[in-house]
Amino acid sequence: MRAYTLRRSRRSASISIRINGDKTIHVTAPYLVPSFMVDLFVKKQADWIEQQLKKLQHKAVAESSESILLFGKRYNKKNISDQTQPTGFLIDDQDLVYNNRVQSIANNSSTYTNAVARFLRQTAELYLLPKSHQLAKKMHVQFSKITLREQRSRWGSCSSQGSINFNWRLVHFAPVVIDYVIVHELAHLVHHNHSAQFWALVAKFAPEYHQAKKELQKFSIPVG
Fold first, then answer.
1. What angle do CA 57, 7, 37 make, to 5 degrees?
2. How many domains does the chain have?
C-alpha cells in the first residue's frame, strides 16, 4: 500500500482520497473511523490510485516543496528569518523568498504552505480582478461578480447568472495564458456553449488561445 497523509474531519461523513499534482496521497476521514478501516479503504482503492498516479506522470507540476511557477517563471522556494524585515514574500532573482521574522520554518510545514496559499490568492486578486474588468470592457460584456477559489478540476467557470469563478492558482501561468482563461469565461456571457461562434469570439480577443490551452493541459492543478 502506498503511503498517505491522513486528516481527520468532523465535517466528513465518509472516507475520501485526494491525489495532488505532486503525487502525494491525502485521505480525509471522520474522527470515529478507526485507522485500520482507513487502511483497508485505501487498499481497496489501490487500482484507482495507481490509475490517477499514472495520469499524473505526463503532467508537469506548477508547485512542489522545492520550487514554484509564478506568472510562467520557475522560482526556488527559500525560507529565511530576518527580524529586521517584515514577515512576507519577495522575489530575489531566481528565488521566491519567505521571511518569517519570528522563526525559521520548513517548506513542508503548514505555516509555510498556508502562507504560500495566501500569497498566491492575493497575487491573483491583484492581477485577475482588474484584468477581468479591462477585458470585459473591451469585449463589451458585463459580469455580475467574480469569485476566486482553489478548485481541483477547472481553471474557470461562468454561471448562467453572469457570475464568474476563477481558480486563483492561475497565477502560476504566464499572463497570456491567464488572459485566455479570462476571455474564455467572458465569452460565455455571450455564448453559453462551445460553438463555432464562441471560439470565434475567443480568437478575436485571445488570438493565441490554442497555445494557451496546450499550456494549461501540461499541468496538474496543485490543490493543498
1. 90
2. 3
